[in-house]
Amino acid sequence: MTGTLVLIRHGQSDWNLKNLFTGWRDVELTETGRIEALAGGQRLKAKGLKFDIAFTSALKRAQNTCQIVLDELGQSGLETVRNEALNERDYGDLSGLNKDDARAKWGEEQVYIWRRSYDVPPPGGESLKDTGARVWPYYIHEVQPHVLRGQTVLVAAHGNSLRALIMALEGIAGPDIVNLELATGVPIVYRLNADSTVASKEILAAV
């Protein structure tokens, strides 16, 4: 028996729009972000997908994306588990700063290393490796068992928490994952084998 795992990065947030480092700061979706989440829900609906359970982070931009998707599918009351293990990477001292201002303060090369390296954290924050250290155990113990029972599971989270999860799912090495970008509001549908390996992957991008 195979189960289905759907990952979706939250729609555009206020701080995405303003080019700010967001991390654990709890900001709202923009109108564009709500439209992106709705479109993701519509593409899932067109595939005939229905969920047995949903997981999301402790941050409202992911929670709201999750709810918009479920509303579109007619599953507004679905059991939804919220946990900070799925939160975005903590950008520490960079949180709330404009990315251009950060480059002016620390230099373009240093900010690039903080943003794009696998294991170098910004001051007071988390690297992608650190983010994975909380995402992976949570996935294995809380999310994966539902999928392996043949259920269809939604995870609505963030660019870096989902990239860390994709590393584990697809066996991608740390240096290679840094080049993976996830579009906002675009569902990724995985079918898993009984041994937890990926049987298939489909990105439901806008046509």
UniProtKB/TrEMBL annotation:
Pathway involvement?
Carbohydrate degradation; glycolysis; pyruvate from D-glyceraldehyde 3-phosphate: step 3/5
The UniProt site entry described as Transition state stabilizer is assigned to H158
EC number(s): the record gives 5.4.2.11
Enzyme type, top EC level: isomerase
| Pfam families found in the cross-reference section | His_Phos_1
InterPro entries attached to this UniProt entry: His_Pase_superF_clade-1 (IPR013078), His_PPase_superfam (IPR029033), PG/BPGM_mutase_AS (IPR001345), Phosphogly_mut1 (IPR005952)
Protein name in UniProt: 2,3-bisphosphoglycerate-dependent phosphoglycerate mutase
Q: Which organism is it from?
A: Mesorhizobium liriopis
